């Protein structure tokens, strides 16, 4: 019987943007503000379109869905990136990496299809 060389990847080590912890704290603050602005502005768009009775047209329906997909899309990547700015050892498990890749591709494809529908509706 022939022995096989098998190994499993359990986690990945992320190199990050910088090796300086002070710079990572500055980047954490910068990207945290950007993430909060993304969440706030897209939620504002969704609530405005949902609760304003003058905006029942299909284009605003698509716009609110596009804002929702943008929230989901940014929520796949940003929380892990922000958490990695605060820790010394930046790792991600194989399953978590695959799940993030799946949802990143899912929301990107959905956004492309929604933008195509918006262009067709125009």
UniProtKB/TrEMBL annotation:
The chain crosses the membrane at residues 12-38, 58-77, 98-120. Its main location: membrane. The keyword Transmembrane applies. It is found in: Membrane. One of its GO terms (cellular component) is plasma membrane. Residues 41-122 form the G-protein coupled receptors family 1 profile domain. One of its GO terms (molecular function) is G protein-coupled receptor activity. It is a multi-pass membrane protein. Keywords: G-protein coupled receptor, Membrane, Receptor, Transducer, Transmembrane, Transmembrane helix. PANTHER family: OLFACTORY RECEPTOR. This is Olfactory receptor 4K15.
